[in-house]
């Protein structure tokens, strides 16, 4: 298995993985148009042409990026794939000189294992809420906000 930046030809498989969990209410759904437009944000774990999992780093501001759309195929959970994707994304944040990465998630325990700390959602800048206002759960959502300070 390798973890690498995504290509346009990965979009169909990314779409399938993400929207599988979105239909269960576990994460935000992503339209193909969004995936194409933001393809440079995306990372994939791949083996023999099969996309096993994905995640994205979305830069928001001078000192802030969001780790989002992290998902691993259900039959391949707990094999370390999600961790490898997170490590790749955090390394990319470091290379880009981004001092802080945050995430909004229903899986805080997973991110705490990767050095993220829970913070108050309200402490984040308004720009962070762009996705949220389009979500059917807004404003009554119990996603947890976590951040990680990157050692640049
Ligand atoms: C969250 C997710 C990406 C983790 O991927 P994964 O490949 O199963 O994770 P890993 O195998 O790398 O797990 C690494 C560690 O985190 C732990 N872990 C995984 N999910 C966890 C959770 N929700 N809470 C606490 N620990 C968790 C694993 O037990 C493992 O621990 P260990 O190293 O001590 O054995 C995966 O569960 C997933 O795709 N979930 C559905 C989509 C989703 O909820 N995404 C969240 C971001 S929006």
Output the keywords.
alpha+beta; Aminopeptidase; 7 strands; globular; binds coenzyme A
The H-and-E topology, N to C, reads as EHHEEEHEHEE
Radius of gyration: 14 Å
Structural class: alpha+beta
CATH topology: Aminopeptidase
Residues in helices, as a percent range: 25-40%
Tell me, what's the shape? globular
N/C terminus separation: 28 Å
Mean pLDDT: 94
- The counted number of beta strands is 7
Unreliable runs: none
**Strand arrangement in the largest pleated sheet:** 1-2-3-4-5-7-6
Into how many domains do the coordinates divide? 1
The major β-sheet equals: 7 strands, mixed
The name of the CATH architecture is 3-Layer(aba) Sandwich
- Count of helical stretches: 4
CATH class wording: Alpha Beta
CATH superfamily: Gcn5-related N-acetyltransferase (GNAT)
Q: Give the percentage of residues in beta strands.
A: 25-35%
Question: Briefly, what is this?
Answer:
The chain is an alpha+beta fold and 152 residues long. The chain is built from four helices and seven strands; from the N terminus they run βααβββαβαββ. The protein has a seven-stranded mixed β-sheet.
